[in-house]
Predict the structure.
Amino acid sequence: MSEISVDIWSLLLAASAVQGIVMGVLLLSNRTQQQANRMLTCLLLLIIWVQIEFLMVRSAREVDFNLFYGTRHGVWLALGPLLYLYISSFTSDRFRFRPGYLLHFIPFTVFTMLLPLLFAEAIPEQGKYYGMLSVMRSSPEGLTPLQMFYGFLFFLQFIHAGFYAFFGIRALRNFTINQGAGIMIKTARLRWMKRYTIIFGSILLMCLVYFSVLFYSSIYERWMDYLLILPTTIWMYMLAFNAYKNPFLFRDDLKYALSQKKYAKSTLDGGLADRYEQIIIRYLEEEKAYRNPGMKLSDLSAALEVAPHDLSQVINQRFECNFNELINRYRVKEARELLADHSNDLNMLEVAYAVGFNNKASFNNYFKKITGSTPSHYRKNGKNK
């Protein structure tokens, strides 16, 4: 039995791994977003596996590396495809995991699992503990072609994952959320995915810099290994924090459950709610009442001859937002149409006034909140296209 040494860094990694396991269990127990949650859970489990392997290398005097095979030497070959498929499950309403998607994981299966398992000499003992780059730097002439390849795989796996991160970010940037129920939640998810994909790409860049420093210089010290593992650990903590603070990012039933509880004593039946939903949409789209900058819930109630509390309930449950958010949503929708019209020569303030905003600051804030882009940037991109 090997002796284990424990320090603050080891405790942080261990806590992160436990946290990731708990989060994975919660994701799998959720009956909504099952496809997406399964891929996110697989991604978490791979990161946890890397953390456990790192802990064993750093804290144990003797490690049986048959347990890990070659996961240190290519786990990012799977993380990139998993991230991309997780993003695809959001950007495609009809996404289903098909057998063809398994082709993305062939490099991981071959180079990370099969070859190290079948050919024990592929990774020498020193490479198991200190990495193949350190072996290549100290004695490259004594390595076999396969061992040389595993040395360069340190670089190749991050470049491979970088391509998937790039295409994922591009898919998110080109994704447009259509008007309708759940738009605010979808917008929040889109913003969250963009942020975390960019962080993922930044971690890849940090890893490339780290290994370049290790390979081409002599400044390496043992503590620098934490520069590789800590970013993914921080990423895991941030993910868990967002799951706690914004659970609707990972499940679809939460908002509905809360609204049901809020309106448990309401006498409004489903059929009447459907009718109210349709007349709200028709009135706002045909009459464009949202252009009135002073429009209130009572105004809409009087125009539709619907009780204010029933109107508020329908907006909260069917559109998943409050009255002000609904009105600003329609204002931004028309503003996007005006900005995309190349023949339109209105300036930003004139566009804001035209759709019902009473000042430019509110227009900019709501436009960016809903679209993820400023009005001027949106117009500029539209003209470039």
